[in-house]
Design brief:
Its EC number is 2.3.3.10. The protein is an alpha/beta fold. The chain contains 16 helices and 17 strands.
Length: 551
């Protein structure tokens, strides 16, 4: 089949979404229970109260650039990509170390030896929304007339640190890179996306000389839950509208029963558990005649007349619906909290860390034929996956629990000292980071030095040995060795026979890739295969699609 060319009005790529997903988190952590004792707070305040077990944090040698360099390099290496197979690179982050120079420009150093500077995209910054906005931008590019047949890469990365006090245990750090293109195992659905935006001073960073945010905790939680309410309402309305237009629609309101799994942006795990209860409250109030004498809504009759806007601070409502939704939480959400509970809040990558955690612990059979709801505070996405290519994506994340176990535990007093030193050296010129980079994971990029003009120099360690840019990039696979066999095209845009053959034969951690030489897509809603997963997202933006069997 002909490959899609820019400006083609006859076809657009089919099943655009996430082809591969790579996760990076720091190599050291602090135990939350030990941090409770060190901070002199009551036992369980961080562990039971917040639902957090451990918190990852960055060493002095790591910054937002090094995190993103590491995760992009790892995505390319494990996927056997060539650097010239990437035509767009988007970065979502709120960790700003330069008011003008984007993180994306630093990442372009990885492309240098390939000669590929024709890479669109830039940084997107708006608290935790930037990652999902970047994903939508990348997908829109692939689906647009500007697409030139290459992949897009989306990077979400942040370092979440707080001043000493109650907020510090809700920190974390990490980065996630996603490969975006056609025929993906996780597909961004068309037709279901709801958005909620508003102005609020709940969380912001007005002091550019500090990494620490200004936070109004109670207001921030209220904003989070209000966004969840409004986006779920928009999502439900659009989903029900699609049902009515479908030929074989399932009658009745859209409810949590329509999701097999639910994943959320996770500032701390306890808020996610409350959010599941919040969604159940929405279903309860929207139900025409809920049965309160038994079943899911048993005993909830006293709350039948409440208004959502009056319940954000009601502990009675929160407790009742959290208890009623406990089994839903255990089945649909708890498996996704592995990374959040053990590494903490990563900001822009947070919800994608939950997606990675879910994929790392579920089989393709668990996910096939189901819908996954995803709430990203600030936005959302939807996806589906055929069971075969989904297997390959799952296998690439199978080592996530082992990687968490391989980290180094740091005593709370040492953690506090590292945070103090980080505060003192933040944005310091003519500076060499304290300590050794050899404690980082092998293959991690690190900050080597900041010169007197604030220019940052990076290197990559491999088993403790420093590797400069030039040595690292000479071994990059050629286009013919990458998984992007579709890029082996003749001048007419037809995929060459050799290029087509590569598509199903390339080795790698994800195994052979599906055929990408056919990219024709009808924009009308199509029947889906019974063994496909739908991931519908809820947030300040929401996307999803009805799942139905093949005609």
């Amino acid at each position: 089949h002909p490959a899609a060319l820019p400006g083609s009005s006859q076809a657009c790529p089919e099943d655009v979404g996430i082809l591969a997903l790579e996760v990076y988190f720091p190599a050291q952590y602090v135990e939350q229970a030990e941090l409770e004792r060190y901070d002199g707070v009551e036992a369980g305040k961080y562990t039971r109260g917040l639902g957090q077990q451990q918190m990852g944090f960055c060493a002095a040698h790591e910054d937002i650039n090094s995190l993103c360099l590491t995760v992009v390099q790892r995505l390319v290496e494990r996927g056997r990509l060539s650097w010239d197979a990437i035509g767009r690179l988007e970065v979502g982050t709120e960790t700003v170390i330069d008011k003008s120079k984007a993180v994306k420009t630093v990442l372009m150093e990885l492309f240098r030896d390939s000669g590929n500077s024709d890479v669109e995209g830039i940084d997107t910054t708006n608290a935790c929304y930037g990652g999902t906005a970047s994903l939508f931008n990348a997908a829109a590019w692939v689906e647009s007339s500007a697409w030139d047949g290459r992949y897009a890469v989306v990077v979400c990365g942040d370092i979440a640190v707080y001043a000493t006090g109650n907020a510090r245990p809700t920190g974390g750090a990490g980065a996630i890179a996603m490969l975006v293109g056609p025929n993906a195992p996780l597909v961004l659905e068309r037709g279901l996306r709801g958005t909620h935006m508003e102005h609020a001073y709940d969380f912001y960073k007005p002091d550019l000389a500090s990494e620490y945010p200004v936070v109004d905790g109670p207001l921030s939680i209220q904003c989070y839950l209000r966004a969840l309410d409004r986006c779920y309402a928009v999502y439900r309305r659009k989903a029900e509208s699609q049902r009515q237009q479908g030929e074989r629609c399932r009658r009745g309101p859209f409810t949590l029963d329509d999701f097999k799994f639910l994943i959320f942006h996770t500032p701390f795990c306890k808020l996610v558990q409350k959010s599941v209860g919040r969604l159940l409250l929405n279903d309860f109030l929207a139900a025409p005649n809920p049965d309160t004498s038994g079943g899911l809504y048993k005993g909830l009759q006293p709350f039948r007349g409440v208004k959502l806007e009056d319940t954000y601070t009601s502990k009675e409502v929160e407790k009742a619906f959290q208890a009623a939704s406990q089994e839903i939480f255990n089945q649909k959400t708890k498996p996704s909290l592995l990374l959040s509970s053990r590494n903490g809040n990563m900001y822009t990558p947070s919800m994608y860390g939950c997606l990675a955690s879910l994929l790392a612990q579920c089989s393709a059979q668990d996910l096939a034929g189901s819908r996954i709801g995803a709430f990203s505070y600030g936005s959302g996405l939807a996806a589906r996956g055929r069971s075969s290519p989904l297997d390959k994506l799952l296998s690439s994340l199978a080592d996530l629990p082992a990687r968490l176990d391989a980290r180094k535990r740091v005593a709370p007093q040492d953690f506090a000292e590292i945070m103090k030193r980080r505060e003192e050296t933040h944005h310091l010129a003519n500076h060499t980071p304290h300590g050794s980079h050899t404690d980082l994971f092998p293959g991690t990029w690190y900050l080597e030095r900041v010169d007197d003009k604030y220019r940052r120099q990076y290197a990559r360690n491999s088993g403790g040995a420093k590797m400069p840019f030039s040595q690292l990039l000479t071994a990059a696979p050629s286009p013919g060795e990458s998984l992007g066999g579709q890029f082996l095209m003749d001048k007419s845009g037809e995929a060459t026979r050799e290029g087509s053959a590569l598509l199903g034969a390339l080795p790698g951690p994800w195994g052979p890739w599906p055929d990408r030489t056919s990219v024709r897509h009808q924009r009308l809603q199509r029947p889906l295969h019974p063994e496909q997963t739908v991931l519908g997202a809820m947030g300040q933006s929401l996307e999803g699609q009805r799942l139905r069997g093949r005609d």
